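Hi R.,

Here's the chain you asked about this morning:
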Amino acid sequence: MDFGFWILDFGLRIAKQGSRLTDHGSRIGHACWCRFVRAAKRVPSIELQPFVSLRLGEKKAIVSTLHDREQEDQALRSPRLCEKQTNSDPAQPFAPLRTCENLIQNRKSKIQNPSWAAIAAILIFATTGCAKFPSNPSGDQTTRVTFTITMDQAINQNFVYIFALNPSDQVNPPSQGPIPVISPPWGNGFVAGNARYFIRWDPSQSPRFQIFRFEDTDLLNFIPIGTPVNFEDVQPGDRTFHFDIDMSQIADTIPIAEAYQTLQVNILTMDNVPQGNGGGKAWDALGNSTSPSGINDFLNVDLRTSRTYRPLDLITGEPVGDVADPRLDISDFRIEVRPR
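And here is the predicted structure, written out as tokens:
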């Protein structure tokens, strides 16, 4: 085997090994391959023509035979292509997002006249290792908020757990924050009031924590925009969710994120996401879910100062036993603000 091709094979083996060793293998394997390509591209004697297949449901977008480095860079910076979620199938509002996966099907490369510079590029790649998961280049620039939410019993992978967010540039926003949808007409089936973003944990999506942005004031259309800047994966038997977000992740620009004064928050759990005018669901949210006043409870988080919010900061508190199924019952939470 030509020595140059042996080098390429070495890089591919490392990328493949990454996919075997981690639950997030496709993301890690892709990160390894992208790092290999970026390192190799610095060497003038190496010509690369990656062939990447990206799949969303039944639709495919192909990036093939990249003719110049600008196109290559653009493709490598966008390893995931997701189209707008429009709830075209009311029975499965999240189904298209669950199949949004990166499938690296083939990689074609031609290496000519390998040199010591090529060897150095591979050594740099091997010693620096793969990108950590999760990685979010837009995070960690403004105020960070850490969420720790504990259920009364183990988290159920078949249930729905959503963390609704509505940032504001006002200290005391006059508008209502996010509240649960508890009866028909269901709308989106999970949140009403005012919400601009939400985070959902779903074991059938990758990564399991994803940030979504609503595209309309009716809260019917939403798209995925990233992942929390840091999170702990939920293992079987776990009762707690833990993740961090930076305000820059839920803002169009850094100046907008820096102008945020308040984050309106609600935690929404349910056994299903009903649609239309029929059906029902078991659910819990912040506050006392058995009290009419508690149904409209949410939390105003001040982003200007360091502080930790607990159930006692709610008007009606967060009682245990306000929903029949303990796997839906929010028993405790901590929301910690760390201004930058």
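One quick note: Confidence is low (pLDDT under 50) at residues 1-8, 14-88, 96-138.

Cheers,
M.
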